[in-house]
Amino acid sequence: MSERIAYLFQQYFNKTETPAERDELMQFIIKSESETSVQRLMEEVFKSNQFEEDPFPAGARDRMLGAALGESVSDHLDEKIIPLRKQASKFIYIAAAVLVLALSFGIYRYRLQKSNETLAAGKLHHDVNPGGNKAILTLANGEKIELNDAKNGKLVQQGGTAVVKLANGSVAYVAGGQAAGTSLMNTMATPRGGQYRLQLPDGTVVMLNAESSISYPTAFSGKTRNVSITGEAYFEVAKNKKMPFIVSFGNQKVEVLGTHFDIRAYSEQPGKTTLLEGSVKISSQNQKQLLVPGQQAVYNIGAKKFEIKTVDTDDVVAWKNGLFLFDNTELDQVMSELGRWYDVKFEYQGIKPQLNFTGLVKKNIPLSKALKILETTGGIKFTIAADKVIIEKK
């Protein structure tokens, strides 16, 4: 038995221990392998103290101990008391009983305090899991299908087209002899905290970001392939020179023959079209603009014209590759991105920090880890509450 434990024991008995010393002693006492050492310490401490009579009525010790600790803990500590009843003198027994009672209350308070601290930590440090593959498919008749809960395989028949959920979690439209002139419209929408992959009947692949939607026919016919979106979507358009692919969003349209591009059309920001490969023609009212790979078009409503700039396309489509990629991004936009993916709201407390962020954050980590990464930039502190994140300036 170490001198350190003997010291801690004496400090506790004398009521001169520090909180850290009390924690250290309690950690030692509650270990089952410490029983013999605890008994020896009780005897040694009380040999230096005189007790002339038992201060407790018969049976009171056990009742008080049980009331203090409850069955599970008192049963465990009774194992420490029983040997003393059999082997110790009356005075040692009385003294030991007093100390065991004191220690028991101490252990009880210690465990209760730690339990409360754990509960409090749970309330103050909520965490939020990242988003995932979630979407709702609305059929032509208004029926809705929760895709994340649906089983793999054929989901439904829409005209001459089968709607199938694939093993990779995406949905594909498999065309097959739909009657001419039949037009059935479907809509896929992702919630906050969701994203989804869709394969249209012509083979075009669409990836929807969180809080986005796309409306489309179950079979393309006529001279053009028309769809409309809200939010953000990445397209890999199947080539068909005879039937241009047209995406409508807000008051803009993007026309392609077959190419890869990203459209960001959330309501709180100007619509952005970014071309990765091929070529696109973008129009709004009487304005038209051709893009080449690496260019991004943003329509300036005040000037009534498109503003074109060269961007890093990897940054633009990082979201579909499982990443948040910030490049001198303002705090509000960063919070908007995180809020949309983790489905949380943000609230500023005190003076709003004027900060920009540059860096990369994986989308598959809990919110607490993502916020911790942002905190390393300095000047800001995040606290996750029940349904929101509090933002404070350091």
TrEMBL record:
Gene Ontology MF terms in the entry: sigma factor antagonist activity
InterPro entries: FecR, FecR_C, Ferrdict_sens_TM
Domain FecR protein: residue ranges: 187-281
A UniProt-annotated Pfam family: FecR_C
TM spans (from-to): 91-110
Record domain Protein FecR C-terminal: where: 324-391
Organism superkingdom: Bacteria
Keyword Transferase among UniProt keywords: no
Name listed for the protein in its UniProt record: DUF4974 domain-containing protein
